[in-house]
Amino acid sequence: xxxxxxxxxxxxxxxxxxxxxxxxxxxxxxxxxxxxxxxxxxxxxxxxxxxxxxxxxxxxxxxxxxxxxxxxxxxxxxxxxxxxxxxxxxxxxxxxxxxxxxxxxxxxxxxxxxxxxxxxxxxxxxxxxxxxxxxxxxxxxxxxxxxxxxxxxxxxxxxxxxxxxxxxxxxxxxxxxxxxxxxxxxxxxxxxxxxxxxxxxxxxxxxxxxxxxxxxxxxxxxxxxxxxxxxxxxxxxxxxxxxxxxxxxxxxxxxxxxxxxxxxxxxxxxxxxxxxxxxxxxxxxxxxxxxxxxxxxxxxxxxxxxxxxxxxxxxxxxxxxxxxxxxxxxxxxxxxxxxxxxxxxxxxxxxxxxxxxxxxxxxxxxxxxxxxxxxxxxxxxxxxxxxxxxxxxxxxxxxxxxxxxxxxxx
Amino acid sequence: xxxxxxxxxxxxxxxxxxxxxxxxxxxxxxxxxxxxxxxxxxxxxxxxxxxxxxxxxxxxxxxxxxxxxxxxxxxxxxxxxxxxxxxxxxxxxxxxxxxxxxxxxxxxxxxxxxxxxxxxxxxxxxxxxxxxxxxxxxxxxxxxxxxxxxxxxxxxxxxxxxxxxxxxxxxxxxxxxxxxxxxxxxxxxxxxxxxxxxxxxxxxxxxxxxxxxxxxxxxxxxxxxxxxxxxxxxxxxxxxxxxxxxxxxxxxxxxxxxxxxxxxxxxxxxxxxxxxxxxxxxxxxxxxxxxxxxxxxxxxxxxxxxxxxxxxxxxxxxxxxxxxxxxxxxxxxxxxxxxxxxxxxxxxxxxxxxxxxxxxxxxxxxxxxxxxxxxxxxxxxxxxxxxxxxxxxxxxxxxxxxxxxxxxxx
Lengths: 410, 410
Hints:
Chain A is α/β, with parallel strands linked by helices.
């Protein structure tokens, strides 16, 4: 007996048959004696279809209207899923994000949740209803519909679980949980039983696409335990919880929990920058202003009062970064700006690093032994990332996965 | 200078190009110095697509969830139309029915508007915005989304026009206005300049599909003048207004304003009913209970304490009517129930009938002269309807249209 929040992504509700699979999972959970709140995303390609419609009428649609449009996707999911569950003979009611009491700040397209008033959800649960809530959406203080950005349904689920003080928050997807690395890239990738919030955050930030980073932050803040598992099996997935709890269970943390990678990187180098104070601040300040997120940075030692500076950004930002850097380079009289798209980032993540200093050295050794050149390095308390040539990426991931003994036991 | 409510149906916003035509009409109205509120329906076939999705998951979807689903159609229209207008450089904001302050009773799928609080719409107009409102939808007292039934967007437009005390209410469609009869059936059908609320109501109730009947009732009640016109031309259409105003303008009302027809009819006959009191009440009471709307009724004189009773219903009710009548016939020991689908209704409508008694006689004479047999007759103050064999319908409409001199002047 408990209160369970279950979240299903768009691919899980893409058509009537999949919707029935989801409905059966929800009713089974209810029949096992739980109160159930299910959060769903827009079905399949709906969001892309809506974006395409918008493109046809406007090159630059107002964000408010975009949110009004996109929010219809989840509204279709919740009503159809409620009909499906009703047809199975269970009591059910659907709610949009605003109806479920989710309010956000005044930002459109990537609003932040400000408050959840779960009164109406609780009232429906008390009546014995399964409650289906639209993910990804909220109302702003003016009563406009806003959306929470990519992966916002995860955030809705975790925030609702926190507000309802749910006993568990299950995030369903088409994978069995969180893996030691992407199973599509490395065959003997192993499903992890436990993962800490911080590890999950580092993984989300370095290419793994299982859970949205903001939702993990909220889960950590409110102590919501996330169970990442598959829509299409009954297997236990991966529990994302506090480091303390994991240490208690596992006695000793693994040195490295996972290897992640990100092909969506481009390296920019500004050549022959004058070595005067404030140059870096100027460059990165201007990039921040136009919304470009800079990841890794490396600066060469000055020679003749000039040096080079390299950094990575996401591939989708390549054009506007190039434009801005050309202006900056001209202004600062640097000699050239070079963009290199043939790079990729590979990272190892693990809370074990906190108490073991040798992980970085071990990583560099594994890569160098196999002749893989490291172009840039960055580290955090529980993550080490390297930029390598993109043609080396597959090998790098495999070697690290083997080298840190993450593979499935035979 | 004035406040204009403009309503556009689903076919007017079916794709990006049509949406641009509508957007230009709206901005032109604004640029002529008016405040503009536009009400739109769901684009093209969206509602049918949504109904089909619902069918796939449930044979009998809950009405509440059906409304939640269907309301997404208009939300797509309003946001896309607002984007289109914004791209033309005009200030615009979209609102769902609930956001526009439209509240309805607790009924789903055919809710009745209880109140409109136009505060938010007025505030946006005062800021110089064009306001795009989703037709067909409202919020019920619980905060659920409800819909207003077929043609509900007309009702939204008229009710908003009343609440805003608009100077005019323009209902756009793909026809130029209201015609003396269906121009697809009779080539020389003539567009009417004026029509009274009552005539429009009788026409809507007898097969003409220009305006939804409930919206005309509301227009009559609040004195909202409706201008029915085409999305695809700038011609003046038909003004639907009070009888008094028409008489003032035209000095003398026409005897007959229009000929309408309805092929969606089926005639049931129960044969050899016992002639005892209360039989008719029993039959029609039971049909009302299962939601069947009975139109025309004829009862034969009793012979041997038995008589026949015939009446018409809409074709979509044929199955449930047959099932119910079979039960009733067995119970009352009638000998048989016969359904005749080869019937159609033809009507003449005109406020001139109020002061001229001879219209019915004239109608019967026109039909009989041409050898058309009348199976059933019903009359109201300003309408006479006849049931004829469906193979005679086209001729009947033509003869009446000619006979009452409704054709275009050459």
